[in-house]
């Protein structure tokens, strides 16, 4: 659904949930140029530090074969025997250079993103084998941009190699007349010069491409306003439904509260704005607030109290103080014990005399 959305409508920054979903699908910002830079760095390290020992090792292994090449049988059995003898030795010589290249290639990916395990990329998709989809990818803006970038890279690298080797042209002309050991040294020095120059150029390319790939990936993850709303509804719930649920809960709570008013001992009022219904029975630690409200709810409490013949006492300061400091179904705060006790005592005394009228 999101893939069919016009990119011009994607004006909102992606949420963390959208970014996490992209990561889970294996969709992460990755620069191939950074990976290439680390591979090139590995090559430079191998040439600079390991090439001499590697060349000496391979030379030592193959020296005898070249010296007695005319006496070595070339039938299949002999070649297999030769491979069994020389294979492990050659592998031992090139193992460290190959391991160096492998480690640098892995680092080239880890510096861009933490390890990620997902099977999403391996799932079969018809779009991957569809000629129409393949044609669209082949002639897309990204493909054209990558093609032009490749041409620029080849041109610049070729220019760099030319500029590095041109001053050494006389040296290259005479290298074939030198001893084998000196030739290897000369080749190593020239290779280090060329790789170093290319590495310097690729450093700029890799840095710029990394910034560009991350910016392009972030832009691709942007969302429309509708997508943001839908995601909010999925994660937090529809605001309209949540408001309705809150309203129902509040209504039920008020219904339960109003059902407790007939059991109150007294209702203390403002008289018009506040109403606090208190219940007290012998043995209770303190009077309990069974209902409280302001304005319309206070009026409803007074009406229910009148119908149930619950005493209503007008005491504006106490009503306001109790409303501000007392929670529903909690005891009256200690600072109001004396004032509440007087009211309840007065009500109970009148009820005993039978002179109270609601």
Automatic annotation (TrEMBL):
Residues 1-28 are annotated as: Disordered. It comes from the Bacteria. One of its GO terms (cellular component) is plasma membrane. It is found in: Cell membrane. Its main location: membrane. The keyword Cell membrane applies. Keywords: Bacterial flagellum biogenesis, Bacterial flagellum protein export, Cell membrane, Cell projection, Cilium, Flagellum, Membrane, Protein transport, Transmembrane, Transmembrane helix, Transport. One of its GO terms (biological process) is bacterial-type flagellum assembly. It is a multi-pass membrane protein. InterPro entries: FlhB, T3SS_substrate_exporter, T3SS_substrate_exporter_C. Residues 11-28 have a biased composition (Basic and acidic residues). Coiled coil: none annotated. Residues 1-10 have a biased composition (Acidic residues). Gene3D superfamilies: 6.10.250.2080, secretion proteins EscU. It holds the Pfam family Bac_export_2. The chain crosses the membrane at residues 37-58, 90-111, 146-166, 190-212. The keyword Heme does not apply. Required for formation of the rod structure in the basal body of the flagellar apparatus. Together with FliI and FliH, may constitute the export apparatus of flagellin. Belongs to the type III secretion exporter family. This is Flagellar biosynthetic protein FlhB. It comes from Pseudovibrio axinellae. The lineage of its organism: Bacteria, Pseudomonadati, Pseudomonadota, Alphaproteobacteria, Hyphomicrobiales. The gene is flhB_1.
């Amino acid at each position: 659904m999101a893939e069919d959305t016009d990119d011009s409508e994607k004006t909102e920054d992606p949420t963390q949930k959208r970014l996490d979903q992209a990561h889970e699908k294996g969709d992460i910002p990755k620069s191939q140029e950074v990976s290439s830079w680390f591979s090139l760095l590995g090559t430079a390290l191998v040439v600079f530090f390991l090439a001499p020992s590697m060349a000496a090792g391979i030379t030592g292994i193959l020296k005898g074969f070249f010296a007695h090449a005319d006496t070595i049988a070339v039938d299949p059995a002999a070649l297999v025997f030769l491979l069994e003898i020389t294979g492990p030795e050659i592998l031992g010589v090139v193992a460290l250079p190959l391991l160096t290249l492998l480690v640098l290639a892995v680092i080239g990916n880890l510096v861009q993103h933490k390890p990620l395990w997902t099977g999403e990329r391996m799932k079969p998709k018809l779009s991957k084998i569809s000629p129409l989809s393949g044609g669209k990818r082949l002639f897309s803006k990204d493909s054209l941009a990558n093609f032009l970038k490749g041409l620029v890279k080849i041109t610049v690298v070729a220019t760099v190699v030319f500029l590095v080797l041109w001053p050494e042209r006389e040296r290259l002309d005479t290298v074939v007349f030198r001893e084998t050991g000196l030739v290897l040294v000369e080749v190593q020095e020239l290779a280090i010069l060329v790789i170093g120059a290319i590495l310097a150029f690729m450093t700029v390319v890799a840095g710029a491409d990394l910034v560009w790939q991350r910016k392009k990936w972030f832009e691709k993850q942007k969302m429309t306003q509708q997508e943001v709303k839908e995601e909010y509804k999925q994660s937090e719930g529809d605001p309209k439904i949540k408001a309705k649920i809150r309203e129902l809960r509040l209504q039920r709570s008020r219904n339960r509260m109003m059902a407790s008013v007939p059991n109150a001992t007294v209702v203390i009022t403002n008289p018009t704005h506040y109403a606090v219904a208190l219940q007290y029975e012998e043995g209770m630690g303190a009077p309990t607030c069974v209902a409280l409200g302001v304005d319309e709810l206070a009026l409803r409490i007074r009406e229910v109290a009148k119908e149930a013949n619950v005493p209503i006492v007008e005491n504006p300061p106490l009503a306001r103080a109790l409303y501000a400091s007392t929670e529903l179904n909690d005891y009256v705060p200690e600072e109001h014990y004396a004032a509440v006790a007087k009211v309840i005592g007065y009500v109970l005394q009148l009820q005993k005399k039978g002179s109270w009228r609601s």
